[in-house]
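Field: sequence (string)
Field: structure_tokens (string)

Example rows 1 and 2, in order.
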Amino acid sequence: MALSKLKSAAVDGVRATPVTVEVDVSDGLPSFTVVGLADKAVEESRERVRSALKHSGYKFPLSRITVNLTPSNQKKTGIHFDLPIALSILIADKQLEVPEDFSETLFVGALSLDGGLQPFPGALILVDWAKQAGIKRIVLPWDNYYEAALIGGIELVPMKNFSDVIELIFGKYLKTLPIRKNEKPQDLYAEDWLQIQGQAQAKRAALIAAAGGHNILLEGAPGTGKTLLAKGMRALLPPLTRDEQIEVVKLHSVAGALPGDKKVDTIGRPFRSPHHTASHVAVVGGGSSSRPGEISLAHNGILFLDELPEFQRPVIEALRQPLEDGEIFVTRVEQSAHYPAEFIFVATMNPCPCGWLGSNQKECNCSPYQVQQYRRKISGPILDRIDLCVHVPAVSLEDLKGKIRDTEELDRYRAQVNFAREKQLKRNGGKLNAKIPGRKVNEVFVISADAEDLIKRASEKFVLTGRSYHKLLKVAQTITDLADQDEIASPAIAEALQYRFGDF
């Protein structure tokens, strides 16, 4: 009869919590029991561990084996418990003795039936937790190495199979690292922007949205280039900072959305574009394991909803809290999780069901009631959370014939976005204009007397709620930053008013 213990951790949202893997091997009828609120994937480790030990040249004990994952009141999910369970069984059965210098080593990884170490979701989260917990070394699957390497200051030992882990413990393993060619990240998004012909006003609005992190709604007839504008906005955004990159990779890792061949250190800003038939859970997050949804996978990037009125109403209304707070709390019966959800919301819509209302190209055949019902699909509270509403007119034939790819304009816009963002982050304490709390707007922004007078006159004509007033000032401040001015003047307010109330 023997007992062994190894350190491990469980992934909880984008955080990790400590778990101890306890294994007891005792006399009795052969059995393998996993306790400690383990989910189905953890329970299935019994068969994976049994086969992996056998194919790695070890004997699986014909005894009563009990695996306890403590604390027992916390739900455990994930396949990364395979490796510590297999090692603990060998230690408890006296087939293996781990040296004292491995007491601060974390073993994580899934096992295949032949003993190979398989990658698992959430590796970056576990590595980040391990570093903060003072763990010196992590043994993990080979294919999780570059993801985990985003966190520095901790020794990573990538392995290909269970036998390598045993050799490491015995001091016989020669450490090697995956080799990768040095690759420069390619600009994959410039092509969308360079295809846009004409649309000067819409491009100006996209520039403002990208510079200040503002939400934008593009409305216009079919074929005017709304979708192209939305996709082209990716080309205006600056590369992810190191901290932003870690946040993005964490979310995509725990969601299992990182391709095996993805070079995570060159990953760009997310651009999530769910289909209009996407369910509430797919967009918001949740399910049986409270996985992050599209709004969290768009964190630090763009969430694009094409043809917004075609989405289910519960999906649209579920955006209220994330658009306001930049985070989402997913609560289900078995598990709750907190995910960041700070993104630029970009949406498109037609002016009516047929799409041709107000167009000079084709006559609209919708009744006033149909138009009203269509536009009612976008509620007032959602519109109130959108900073810029822009009408995208039809492109003229002369513009469509244009063959000039204005790379100079793209370079100029990118430089303006970078300049405006640097100015905002310095002034706003690390936040973009769109993301600072409304209560701090009057503390941070400087508004001229003529701008104050224009706002007062606008409030008499338009309905200015507390939120819309603050959003008006935030957009005006971004316009001011792009012009490299320090005080919000009346022209900036006038342009911001046009985007907020011009066509809606």
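Row 2 begins here:
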Amino acid sequence: MTSWVRKPRDRNRVARRFVFDAGVQDISGLGPGAPLSRLLNLLGERETLHWLPVRHRHVVDGVVIDMPRDWAGLEQLLCTRFAEEAPGIRAFLGEVRLIHRDLYAGMQAARYRPIAQLPLAEQMQWRRLFPHAANAAGRPYGECLQRHIRNPTLLGIFSLLAEYVTDDPARTSLTDMVPLFGYYIDGGFYPAGGAQKLPDLLCRVIERHGGKIRLKTGVTRFTLCEGRIAGVELTSGAVVHAPVVISNADVASSHGTLLGTYDLPPRYRQRLRQLQRGPSAILINLGLATVPDMPARVFVKQGDLVFGLSNPSVLDPSLAPPGHAALCLLHLLPEAEAGPWLGLAPAQYEQAKEAHARRLIEAAGRVVPGLDRHILHYEVAAPPTFLRYIRSENGSIYGAARGQWCPAVRSPVPGLFLAGAGMATGPGVEAAVLSGLHAAHAVMDG
């Protein structure tokens, strides 16, 4: 949720101002009762930011589909374009819609707490009231999709949304994927001015209520007293005392270097050791001397190559000079491919970044004709970049791989609570906000 400014000079030495984002350019969870709406309403900030509606385009091996932002329009378009698959499309989308309805109604009924934290009688009642959500838990998304759909292009369209949470759609469950269809129910949005606007808003709320934000302040370890959290020690050596710590650091760090030799339950420690980290990425931010004629969000599949393009300048001209655009290209790297990047010598690293950037820019040029001719500036982030800035193991950008156990927000360490993409709620802004709501309730519930 970070934005930054670059001012490259063109061939006439004129500086051009571009606002780039660190990958977040399409935010869900703003529908009625959804997590981000819930948070902003609780804070009294629902109308503070100007949210711009994002439209999606899917490009699957040359087939271009502009996706409507409403459910009926989506079903009608796909049934028209893929008439032979119409019965399966209706059945699949009908099942997704029922699960989606139950998930969000159930979220509100659970008062934004994890179902497992409710009293047993309430859990049983929840499952009776919201059977579609209850039955979706743990069910593979791919099985449901392939039960209804056969066309490879259509399978690609319904699988590309997985880019928001994983590099491997086969790992996703219905519970992972169905919330992503909310982009076609309640819509996805971009905060005018850049992704940084949302954390800036949250910082102001914290400070207004007496809290302090400490930037550029590293934490070296958690401090403990009689087996429970007592605060954190900073890189300066100072200790900040606190009876409760909510950590959104990488899960491995929260229970490794930061916690030290604390005697975690053996089963919990074993699960942490076995936790797969999920994808890292190649992220390219480009300053262009044109505004591409395409929606703000484009998903691309070219054979085995999958990447996403974000074109927020088509929504928000303030991100670049008139007639210019800030374009983002994101390509996920499986965990096995991310690791080798961390051992490269500086010269090898720069060569690898440039080689990957040229390949991806060339591929994007098939979607944005003439792209290469309009580039005024570009910068590339790779796994070591994410390792440096978010200190995640292997430079993982999504916290943990899907399709496996992930920790709950309440740690076995008394006083330590967890939040962020590595939790059971998963990656993405909406899911991270939900993990924060879960952590807040866990703290208040004692």
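free_text_note (row 2): The mean pLDDT is 93.
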